[in-house]
Structure formats: structure tokens, C-alpha cells
Amino acid sequence: MRKSSTTEVTRESRRLSAGPVSRSVARESEPGRDCPLCPRLAAFREEIRAREPHWFNSPVPPFGDREAALLIVGLAPGLQGANRTGRPFTGDYAGDLLYGTLLEYGFADGVYQARPDDGLRLINCRLGNAVHCVPPQNKPLPIEIKTCRPFLIATRDEMPKLRAVVILGRVAHDTTLKAFGIRAADAPFGHGAEHQAGNIRLFDSYHCSRYNTNTGVLTPAMFKAVFARVKAYLAAS
Q1: What is the CATH number assigned to the segment(s) 6-236?
Q2: How far is CA 122 from CA 58, 66, 152, 175, 194, in A?
Q3: Which strands form 164-168's sheet, in the order they lie side by side?
Q4: Taking all residues of the chain, what is their mean pLDDT, rounded to a whole number?
Q5: Helix H segments across 132-209?
Q6: CA 142, 216, 137, 6: dihedral to nearest 10 degrees?
Q7: Residues 115-146: pLDDT tens digits?
Q8: Distances, alpha carbon 162 to alpha carbons 15, 22, 165, 182, 233, in Å
Q9: What pTM was estimated for this model as a whole?
Q10: How do residues 66-98 score in pLDDT, each as one tens digit?
Q11: Is residue 99 classed as helix, strand or coil in its secondary structure?
Q12: Domain edges within the chain
């Protein structure tokens, strides 16, 4: 099969994420393509668009079925990952570990090839980020996290069958707690920790970034153990 060019992949990513509504118009759970709410992120987005015009370079929408029982919340799109491809966790090392784990535990089907037209399908699972736009140095500011939180809340609220949330990293943990109205003191972050938000179980994990895996903060076995618990919880609920 012919390998798609970067331009073709980007066009396909925009088509898949846009659905029946133009990307220039914000859907309920998404900022628009030219979202101006975070000036620093908007300026960075324009800078990258000028440098890499064939990349996605827009707020990255969630990936997966709104009827899913599992939502995974990351931090923000990676510069050469989701910001380039337009699909969460696609195109960088974090995606290699995440999608490989989802495939192993039955939350995905197909073959992950690090591009949005690889045909990979999520099963009872949806992916999103606390911040929709790529931040400089992969570090969103607190005000940017707060500004983007309504979109995270909208993503949660449009999932009627949601029963579990896997939260990747402390920053995503903190904003997800706020989205659920939970005090930080009542649900401290820790890898493997679990917290209850009504009928939804929250599962904490260290982020599956290359830095965390290279330094041994997170091993594949540690990461897989979280999803084993999620699978068991969903099977029992």
C-alpha cells in the first residue's frame, strides 16, 4: 500500500476530525481552528503554521466514540505528534506506548502506524487532552489550562456512558479534578491511585512521555497495570 504524504495525512486528519461541521466553527466540545482564547498559544500556533504549513496546526479534537465508557486525558498535543498529525497521541513516542497498550487490552483494533489514516479504531475508548493546542516547550501555563477546561468538561458531558477516566500526569490530574468539582486534598495524585467521582472512577498514571520512560519513572509494565485495572473495573461495572 502506498504510504501517504505528509500533506495527504494532514488533509485526511482534518476531514476525520471535522465531521459534518467546518473546523472554522467550534463544536460544543472543541475550540475552533483559530481559537483566540489563549494569546500565547494562538501566537505559537501561527508561528508553526508559517514554518510547517502542511501540519495540522490547530486545536486537536478528541479521538474516539462519544458512546465510549473510557476517556483518557493527556496534557496537550506534542509539537511533532498530535499538532502535526491532528490525532491525539499520534506521531510521537507517547503514542507508541499508549496505542500499543490500548491494542493489548482490547481498547483499540487495527495497527498503529503513527498517522491518522492508519485505520486504527478505538473500542469503548476516547482520547483527549486537558489543553487542545500545542504549548511552547510542552508546558501550558495555568491560565491556559483553566481557559481550556470548559472544553474538557464538555467532552465529559457529551459521553453518556462514561464510567472511567485515565488521567496521564499530575497537571491533567489537577484540571480533571476541577472539572469534576473534587478538591485536590481529597484525591491526591499518584501513579496507580484511584478516585471516585459519582459513578465514574478516575485512574491516575504517570504520563507515557519519552522522558518518563527513559528515566524509569514509568515502565511499560507500570503503565499496563493501570489499564488492566481499568479493564477489570469496566467488566465488573
Answers
A1: 3.40.470.10
A2: 22, 11, 19, 24, 23
A3: 63-64, 125-129, 70-74, 164-168, 200-205, 194-197
A4: 90
A5: 142-157, 170-180
A6: -120
A7: 999 999 999 999 999 999 999 999 999 999 99
A8: 26, 27, 8, 17, 12
A9: 0.88
A10: 999 999 999 999 999 999 999 999 999 999 999
A11: helix
A12: 6-236
Left if phi > 0, otherwise alpha if psi is -120 to 50, otherwise beta: which for 62? beta
For helices 220-236 and 93-104, give the axis angle rounded to 10 degrees. 40
CA dihedral 177, 139, 44, 51 (to 10 degrees): -130
| Segment (H or E) for 10 | helix 6-18
170-226: per-residue pLDDT in tens? 999 999 999 999 999 999 999 999 999 999 999 999 999 999 999 999 999 999 999
Q: Which of 165, 168, 154, 227 is nearest to 199 (CA)?
A: 165
Residue 66 CA to residue 88 CA, distance in Å, equals 15
Class of residue 183 by CB neighbours under 10 A (exposed 0-12, middle 13-18, buried 19+): exposed
Identify the residue whose cell numbers are 503514542. 95
> 93: which strand partners?
none
Q: What dihedral do alpha carbons 155, 100, 103, 120 form, nearest 10°?
A: 70
Q: Are 79 and 88 in contact (CB under 8 A)?
A: no
Quote the CA–CA distance of 138 and 77 in Å, as a whole number: 8
Residue in the block written with cell 482564547: 37
Do 164 and 71 meet the contact criterion of CB atoms below 8 Å apart? yes
